[in-house]
Every structure is written in structure tokens, then in C-alpha cells.
Amino acid sequence: LTASKIVTLTTDFGLKDAYVSEMKGVILGICPTAIIVDITHDVRQFDIRNGAYMMAAAAPYFPNGTVHVGIVDPGVGTERHPLILETKRGFFIGPDNGLMIMAAEAQGIEAVCRVTSRSYMLSHVSGTFHGRDIFAPIAAHLLNGIGIEEFGPPQTEFVKPTFSIIEKTNDSLVGEILHVDNFGNIITNISYRDLNTPIGIFLQVKFPRRNLKLNLVKSYGEAKVKEPLALINSHNYLEIALNQGNAAANFEAKEGDRIVVSQSISTT
Amino acid sequence: LTASKIVTLTTDFGLKDAYVSEMKGVILGICPTAIIVDITHDVRQFDIRNGAYMMAAAAPYFPNGTVHVGIVDPGVGTERHPLILETKRGFFIGPDNGLMIMAAEAQGIEAVCRVTSRSYMLSHVSGTFHGRDIFAPIAAHLLNGIGIEEFGPPQTEFVKPTFSIIEKTNDSLVGEILHVDNFGNIITNISYRDLNTPIGIFLQVKFPRRNLKLNLVKSYGEAKVKEPLALINSHNYLEIALNQGNAAANFEAKEGDRIVVSQSISTT
Amino acid sequence: LTASKIVTLTTDFGLKDAYVSEMKGVILGICPTAIIVDITHDVRQFDIRNGAYMMAAAAPYFPNGTVHVGIVDPGVGTERHPLILETKRGFFIGPDNGLMIMAAEAQGIEAVCRVTSRSYMLSHVSGTFHGRDIFAPIAAHLLNGIGIEEFGPPQTEFVKPTFSIIEKTNDSLVGEILHVDNFGNIITNISYRDLNTPIGIFLQVKFPRRNLKLNLVKSYGEAKVKEPLALINSHNYLEIALNQGNAAANFEAKEGDRIVVSQSISTT
Predict the structure, then answer these.
(1) pTM of the predicted model as reported, rounded to 2 decimal places
(2) Does any CB of chain B come closer than 8 Å to the CB of residue A14?
(3) Do the Cβ atoms of B136 and B177 come closer than 8 Å?
């Protein structure tokens, strides 16, 4: 796979400070033809799961060869390594803390590289801002066509976050709550592909404090007001919602909660 | 008119989520040379008038051929159609709900097309995110030089919002309050062109709960502190303000209020 | 020096309104190949020191020839002049109010021009929005390769803000507090180059209401929890911090405060 000129940025830096722009300056200094797109810089600070969801939501809509940089990095300054993941459709650059795994696995990971070569970082690496000093220059050199094998040795293991793991048994899927949006809609880490059932069937959904039977519908409007429903959201993940209500509050569910989903046999 | 490579985005999606970036990914996938400029993504949610003002304020400052995409869409998922408006200076793409009309009419509407061809949308159109699945790809195909007649049939009627309409009588203009800014300045939908009077004259301005005689000045500083004034703002609309005070609070005026403006005869 | 195609924007306009986008439209209309990068638009309103710090922080990371536009302009509409500063590494455009001086001086100022030629401004200059009507077009013409001598006469004097001045005596540096960040870390206007001492030594730091002896370390983690420390931050300025604590609150220090720094003789 050859990198395109498109690079995306996902961070928890916010836009009030100059940090994000410094990364862009570094990228343009190394690759003047780079096309830089912000995914979001308002990831909840240090919240890897929240950042992972943003990357997994957005990456499918970018063209082949896009380089995705993700920086939500509670461990900056410690010994975790910078990684490059090459997938069937693009590249992911970030700390080895699980942030990029969901997005990368959805595209099919082809190779993993631990970046060790100092020649692809800024000459002075600060202790506190690896986004600018390490990850931005790596991205720009990838955009310039440097192969991932030039950056360092292959790595076979990497941090795999719990929220990227789905357990499949004969009759159920075990996942977790990835995100609760502003409306209280519950977004799970179970994708359309994992679920593999037709619209219209009934699902049995078990939260820690609730057990529900829900119709898998196409849009909120198909349920009565305040009635619970399941749907595949616009990012292709299973979502549990109340039509015009707050599902998370109602079902006492929060991010990180385990959920068990199975097809409902009875239809009563 | 030929589309340039510049496309602007005006939405109420905010920048906390990945939505806006997904639109950009789709656009760059179809038109890799697109130059994407954000107008704002902080339109008040579902507030078509607020979005319309943002588009009308910004569009005049973009070069000929710019493609403007506006998405403030309380009716997403219902039967309202996607429209393309071609003007003397550019293109406007968005839902048929009035959002684009002020901005487009100021440029002179030349042709209107109802988009029906599925070939210019994403292959899978979600029920909830037409910005990404319908409007972004249409914009990118326009940037690629596809003529508007390729997207669907001409349409003669479209939703025309009240805030785009000025009634003119012999001696007065009837309009409405388009926007109250953070300082309480009252921006009307009456443009410099509509008003057509020289700086320095006195205007009679009638709000629902107040009737004022105001000097049409060039800048806030020409009135005494806390004194009311009228001026043509930097977006070429008539604005009623208090120098260093809050006009909207003082005159009990709010967005959507009807206003009647006439030239004042007496100067006492 | 020749301008590159990169232009950065630093303003206090926020992103809720269309203002920033209007500047971008104007720039692209004059220089269609411009690459526009936002530093930040969330400078505290009318706070020149805050804006100056953002520009000084970001500018070093942009390539040679970058054009930096800064607009934090309490005096818009008054007689202060638009300036262009040419440095060894780039260009700075903004009002003559001190905003750009720190960033420009760090690069070495080569020439200063007072912009008087109306041919490089929009044909209609509003009283309230010089960012769009004056500074954006100047920037775009610079990107197009117009030499700074074309814009107006050289100017030898300009407003030099106190926060850009360091007094050096035989054994001490007198500066001021430039910025207090969200964590209460105290960033001074004393740069790494001014300080010119090795990591590991002890510094005597005098705030108006406190006198401290601090170890100059490499990262927060080298001090005990709640213990004060000095370090060179990621923007190369001297920073006084408490490891996991709020230094500004603890030392009753605020932006603008005078500080005196000297090397500590005793090490007790």
C-alpha cells in the first residue's frame, strides 16, 4: 500500500492552545503537499476509548492510503513505543496503548512497526509533546513515501484494549458499551458485521442492571415515543436507544459496561 | 458557471464528534484536489435561520465557482429533497428547507435542481447522516465538473423562509430580526441594497415593543455611550445597536421579531 | 526571503461565527494555492499577551517563508497601522500593537513595513473587520510573491510590548509571567536561550509575593508530588510548576507579574 497525501489527526489537545497547529507546521515542513484533516481534537482528555471510537467512526470514510494519527496518551514520557500499523486501506500512527486498534482491525492489519529510528523524528524531542516531535514527523515521512520497514523493526505484539474485543459463542455476542452520546444513546462495540442478523428480528440485550428484548429497526422513528429500540447506527455499530428519550439514564448503563446480545427466540 | 475546487461547509454538527471529518473524507475520496473551508459547525442545533445567516454572511467573500454546502436539517430522514442551486457566482447544496435561500438569492439564482440520481450519492445511504451520504458526495461531484443537470430534474419551487423576505412599500421596509449577536446587537434581514439610503439620515425603526428614531452612522463610536444607533454591519445588513450596551435586552427584541423601517421626516 | 504558500491565522474571533471563514475566502480568492493553517481562534478576547504567546509558541514549527497573520485588535477602527514584519524565517502581518513582536524577534526581524497602499486591501474596507478587509488580502498578496516594499514605506519604530522585553544584569534576568495554563503552570517570557544554564542547576526565582529556590529539571516527574520545579517547556520558555499541583495558585502569581531569575549560589 502506498500512502496518499491525506493525513488525519485525532487528539485530546483541544483547539484553544497552539498545539495542534504545531503538529501541522511540522507535517507541512516535511511534506509540503500534505492534506491535513482534523477528525476531532475534543476527545475527552486521556480517554483512550473515546478517542478509539472517533477514529473507528471516521476512518472508513477516508480514501485508500490515508494516514491516521491518533494521540490520546496518558503515558507520554514513559516507555510505551510509537507504532505504525499498516492495514489493507491505510496507515495508523500513535502510541502503543490501544487507541488505534479498533479502527485498524476493521480495515485488516497487514504489518506492525515499532518506530525506533531517530531520523524520522524532530532533532529535539521534548519530554511532553510527542505529538509534535515524534508522531507528526513520522506521519509526514510516510506521506513522502518512506516504507514502514524504514522506521524500525516489525513488532508482533501490541496493546489490545478490551473494547476492541468481541466474544462470540454459539448463540450470543459479548461486547461492551463504547460510547454514550449527548442524547443518551448507547453505542456498543458490536459492529454490523459481528451481529450479522437481518433488520426486523428481536434481540435479547443484557446490560449489568437490565435485560431487554428489542426490535432491530432502521430508524428511531419506528419505535413509539420513549420506547426502546436497537439499530445499526451511521458508523455501523449496534446502538440501543429510546425514541426521544435517554437510554443510558433509563437502563443505568455507562461506558465500559459489558453487554450480552443474542437473538430472541420467543417473540412475545 | 464552472465549479472551482473550493467547497465550504456550514452545519450544526459541532466539532466534538467525528461527523464533519467524515464528510471531508468522502469529499476527498471523490475529488482529491478539493479545498475544504469550514464556515462554522456551531450553528445552533436545528436553527435554520441561524445557519442561513452564517451562509449569507460568508458566501460573498468566496471566489466565483465556490460550492457551498449547508446542513441544518431538522427533517433528516423525511421526504424533503436535496437541492442544488446554481447562482451567478457559485453553487449551494443542502436540504430544501430554506437554509440556503438568502445566500443564494443575494448572488442571483440561475437554476435549481432536485437531486434524484443515486449515482452521485454514497452506495449506502444511512437514515440519519445525509450530510455524509448524500450532500458531501454531491458537492464533490460538482467540484469534479459534473453539470447540475446530471443530478436530477429542474425544480421550479422551493421552500422560501420568511426571514429571506422583505416587503417594500412606498415609504417603508418590513423585515425581521435575523440574529442577535453576543453583544446584544440586533442584526436585521434588511440589506444595504434594500435600504438604499445615505449614511447620516435618521431612520424610524419599529420593533414589536418599541418605536425608535435612530441615526444611521458608520461605527459604534459615533453614538454616545449607551445611546442607540443604526449602522450597516460588516456583512452589509442593517444593525441596531447601543454603543457599549445590549440593544436586544433594552428594546425587548428577539430573533424572528418583525421590524418596520422608514426614513424619518422630522429630525427632532 | 520568498513567501511560501503557507499562511497561519491567530485571532480572538472564535469559531462560532463566520468571521474566520470570510478571511479564508478572501485569501483563496487572491491566492488560490494558499495553504491556510489555524493556530487558534480562541485567544482570550482583546488579550494581546495571550495571542502573542500563541504566535510565539507555534511559529518556530512552521517552514521558512510562512506568513503569519495575527489579529487581536482592541484598537480596530482607530489609527494604529497595519504592519508587515519580515524576519529571517518568515513574515508577520497584523496591527501595530505588539502582538507579533515576540514571535518575530525570536526569528530575527529584518525589515518592517507600514502598509499604506490601498491596492492590496479589499476595495471596500469596513470599519469593524480589518482582519478580512485589510490583513487577509495583504497576506494573500505576500503569498503571491509581492515584495514587502510594495505595500508601503519602511517603518523604524513599532509598539514593543513589555512582555517581549527581558532585562539582563550581571547575575539575573528580569522578565514577566506570560501565561498561566489550565493546570496552573506558570510560563515566563524567559526563553531557553536567555537563560543559558544547564539542566540540573538551582535557580533563585522571585515572584512579587514569593521567593523560591528551584531545581531546573527535565520533566515534572523528577520532582516529588506537590514539590515546585523549574523546567524548559515544549515551547522553549522557562516554566515554574508544582508536580501534580497548581503553581500559580500556590505562589499567588498571575499573568503580567514581574519575575527575577538568578542562579542560586548555595545549594542548601
Answers:
(1) 0.94
(2) no
(3) no
Task: State the helix-helix crossing angle for B19-30 and A48-58, rounded to 10 degrees.
Answer: 30
**How confident is the model over C61-120, as pLDDT tens digits?**
999 999 999 999 887 766 778 999 999 999 999 999 999 999 999 999 999 999 999 999
Lowest mean pLDDT among A208-222, B15-29, B130-144: A208-222
pLDDT for B73? 87
- B partners (3+ CB pairs within 8 A) are A, C
Tell me, what's the ipTM?
0.92
Strands C172-180 and C167-168: antiparallel
Name residue A56's amino acid: A
Chain B contact set for C26 (CB, 8 A)? 61
Question: Over pLDDT 90: what percentage of chain A?
Answer: 79
The average pLDDT across A152-166 equals 93
Q: Which residues of C touch A128 (CB under 8 A)?
A: 219-220, 233-234
First to last CA, chain A: 51
Neighbours of chain C (3+ CB pairs under 8 A): A, B
Are the C-beta atoms of B103 and B52 separated by less than 8 Å?
yes
The pLDDT assigned to A148 comes to: 96
User: What is the distance between the alpha carbons of residues A86 and B227, in angstroms, rounded to a whole number?
Assistant: 64
| pLDDT the model gives residue B265 | 67
Sign of CA dihedral B204, B205, B206, B211: negative
Interface check C58 vs A, CB under 8 A: yes
CB contact under 8 A, C25 and B61: yes
Q: Which of B15, B21, B28 minimises the CB distance to A63?
A: B28
Helix (H, G, I), strand (E, B) or coil at A66: strand
pLDDT, tens only, B64-84: 999 999 999 887 766 778 999
Per-position pLDDT tens, chain C of length 268: 899 999 999 999 999 999 999 999 999 999 999 999 999 999 998 899 999 999 999 999 999 999 999 999 887 766 778 999 999 999 999 999 999 999 999 999 999 999 999 999 999 888 778 999 999 999 999 999 999 999 999 998 999 998 999 999 889 999 999 999 888 999 999 998 899 888 889 999 999 999 999 999 988 878 888 899 999 998 889 999 998 889 999 999 999 999 999 988 654 4
Neighbouring chains to A with at least 3 Cβ pairs closer than 8 Å? B, C
Q: Which amino acid is at B43?
A: V
Single-letter amino acid, residue A26: V
Determine the 3-state secondary structure of A246 from DSSP.
coil
DSSP assignments along A172-207, one per residue = EEEEEEEEE-TT--EEEEEEHHHH---TT-EEEEEE
Which of these, A238, A144, A142, lies nearest to A191 by C-alpha position? A238
The pLDDT of residue B222 is above 80? yes
**Binary contact (A18, C57; C-beta < 8 A):** yes
Alpha-carbon span B221 to B252, nearest angstrom: 23
Subunit contact A32:C234, Cβ cutoff 8 A: no
pLDDT at site A182: 80
**Residue B233 contacts residue B248 (beta carbons within 8 Å):** no
Locate the chain A residue with the closest alpha carbon to B78.
A221
Cα dihedral: C73, C76, C78, C83 (round 10)? 60
Asked if B233 has any chain C CB less than 8 Å from its own CB, the reply is: yes
Can you say how many angstroms the Cα of residue B196 is from the centroid of all Cα atoms in its chain? 21
Question: Is there a contact between C58 and A126 if contact means CB atoms under 8 Å apart?
Answer: no
Q: What is the pLDDT of residue C268?
A: 46
Residues of A in contact with B133 (CB under 8 A): 234
The answer to whether C24 faces chain B, any CB pair under 8 Å, is yes
Q: A63 and B29 in contact by Cβ < 8 A?
A: yes
Please judge whether B32 and A4 are an interchain contact, meaning their C-beta atoms are less than 8 angstroms apart.
Answer: yes
For residues B175 and B232, what is the distance between their CA atoms, to the nearest angstrom? Answer: 15
